[in-house]
Amino acid sequence: MVPITSTVPGLLTAAFLTLAAVTSASTITVKPHQLIQAAIDAAQPGDTIVVKAGVYAEQLTIKTDCITLTGQKGTILVPPTTPVPPAQQNLCFNTTGFDNIAGICVHGTDVELAQFPGSEHQKVISVGRRVKDVTITGFEINGFSGENIALYGAEDALVTKNKIVDGQVYGVLAAGCINSDVSNNKILSTGLTPFGFRFIGVCSDNESGAKVWTNDVDNYGIAICIQTNGANIQHNHITNSCLGAFVDPGVDGAIVRHNNIGPSNPACATAFGASSGIFVAGINTEVQFNTVVGQTIGAAATSENLGVGINVRDIPGDPRIAAGNQIVRNNVSNCQLDLALNSTGAGNVFKKNKCQTPASLCTS
Fold first, then answer.
1. Who's near 20: CB < 8 A, 6+ residues apart?
2. How many distinct structural domains can be found in the chain?
3. Which pTM value belongs to this model?
4. Is 41 within the bounds of a domain?
5. Mind telling me which residue stretches traverse the membrane in this protein (predicted)?
6. What CA–CA distances, in Å, run from 302 to 165, 282, 297?
């Protein structure tokens, strides 16, 4: 029998190292007229940066593990007042289009990006080393031309309890990450731009693991885009958007449950051309226990283009068809068409949904 005492030195060493890690963490305070980025650059893993109330005109970059960036009530981050010089352009610069910057860019090292495809964002090809355990909380982040918050090549990043306003392309984007968590945020667009709707409220395009829970998302073209296999999208409240939750072609096994999706924006008919509470183009998606109401494009509707509550549909020209999707126990009402199946894929199931139209899908 192995003596019990043989494990004691190892346990004591582990306890000592854990205690040392905790006690070495410090809190750095940033006041108005000071630079948040300077505090981030000075921080060590485990540190918390507390930003006092005020307006800070900066773009921020976080590359250090285990940093918590906390804004006190009334802390607002806005774009710099002058163009960002080349020496200060971080990884997120231009990832969503020409001359676009992110408000807060969290990224790993040696992140390789594909070329910008002309819309959405640059895809992550590889990550040398991930930045881990970064938390962003308590901020209002307002009006950046690309992403208000961007996570590239991060692991276990948490974005929570922020007010994220008028991100032109994305409110929050996670790309090439592992286990990103975007929860309990208010993500909104204050109105249309000369180019139409701001694009996407939250998007998860991860290597694996994406949680989007309990957010309020308002007035985006697409409220939540789902580009991660097995993404977990639950308990979000979505209003005034054209596509509430969009599961991209090829995405496998996303979970879309317990979301409340309110009426679409009347401007969707002319400024976006579509309206759907939940649009599923992926495979093996679980769409359950959602409430969807009021999806319409008004008089612009045609037999081919309606406001649809839950729409399982192949994307024209894309060889990846929607298949194996389970649309179960949802409550859908007051849409031009409550449920729709426009896919040649096998195994798409609609059952036990509360809805009216069409009868063929609402009676099973």
1. none
2. 1
3. 0.91
4. no
5. none
6. 33, 24, 9
> Which residues are CB-neighbours of 9 under 8 A, at least 6 positions away?
none
182, 209 Cβ separation under 8 angstroms: no
Tokens, residue 146: 């690309």
**CB of 168 within 8 A of CB of 123?**
no
Which two structure tokens, joined as six digits, stand for 118? 């002309």
Rounded Cα distance between 163 and 169, Å, is 16
Instruction: Kindly report each contact of residues 86-91 with a partner whose C-beta sits within 8 Å and lies 24 or more positions away, as own/partner.
Output: 88/59, 90/59, 90/61, 91/61, 91/152
Judged by DSSP in three states, 356 sits in: coil
Residue 64 placed within a domain: no
Token pair for 276: 């759907």
Q: Which domain holds residue 133?
A: 97-362
Classified as helix, coil or strand, 269 is helix
Residue 311: which CATH number? 2.160.20.10
Residue 253 lies in a domain: yes
Separation CA 315–CA 90 (nearest Å): 34
274 within domain boundaries:
yes
Which pLDDT tens digit goes with each residue over 231-250? 999 999 999 999 999 999 99
Instruction: Say which residues have a Cβ less than 8 Å from residue 29's Cβ, sequence separation at least 6.
Output: 49, 50, 51, 52
Where do the H-state alpha helices sit in 143-291?
Answer: 268-271
User: Which residues, at least 6 apart from 194, have a Cβ–Cβ distance to it below 8 Å?
Assistant: none
* Position 3 pLDDT exceeds 50: no
